[in-house]
TrEMBL record:
Domain Tetrapyrrole biosynthesis uroporphyrinogen III synthase: 25-236
Pfam families in UniProt: HEM4
Gene Ontology annotations of biological process type: uroporphyrinogen III biosynthetic process
UniProtKB keywords: Lyase
GO molecular function, one term: uroporphyrinogen-III synthase activity
EC nos: 4.2.1.75
Superkingdom: Bacteria
GO CC, alphabetical: cytosol
Name the record gives this protein: Uroporphyrinogen-III synthase
Transmembrane helix among keywords: no
Organism: Bacteroides intestinalis DSM 17393
Amino acid sequence: MKIKKVLVSQPKPASEKSPYYDIAQKYGVKIDFRPFIKVESLSAKEFRQQKVSILDHTAVIFTSRHAIDHFFHLCTELRVSIPETMKYFCVTEAVALYIQKYIQYRKRKIFFGNTGKFEDLLPSIIKHKTEKYLVPMSDVHTDEIKNLLEKSKIQHTETVMYRTVSNDFTAEEEFDYDMLVFFSPAGVTSLKKNFPDFQQKEIKIGTFGSTTAQAVRDAGLRLDLEAPSVQAPSMTAALDMFIKENNKGK
């Protein structure tokens, strides 16, 4: 079956120069962007049940923009005023710069890593070993950060501030795609929730990341494209190659 219509379970690219648009034009394929999942804040009531006091901490570790959004959202809802002395430690400079959305960047002590890996941020945290760290997290997370902080004897509190939920489809939304592309296990779960009677048949499924690929297999579905690979380090590179091969001579 020729691939004519693809659903990418990501928000629409902000730039018109996205490689997805190049693929659409090159192969005459329609690519829609529709997240299967969305992130929402815990309510103030739900947060209070964790018995965590934000102001008992002197530094915050941010692993993503989501963490920043939901931290400041909850602070507003809880009427917690963050002191200017609060220090912020971010996994990348891009995440650090995002804090400007909520506070004056130049007036604060902000530190960041260069690679996006938490291990790269750790030396900065260890240099400020006397701080009491707060780590805002999603309801779905690994113990990587916890283990590294404990190993370095860093005083910290992990707290869930946001959760990933299914972004439900409406009855009016057409679901007539030749290919679905997923980036997280939660997206695969959302597919099964939205369409309990989903029959894959000839529909192709592509994934980015090993955990997402495994989620497709665990759901009893056929995985047709797995990225990244040596030949295709990005999802767009993999998709380009896949559509070119699949639509050849059809």
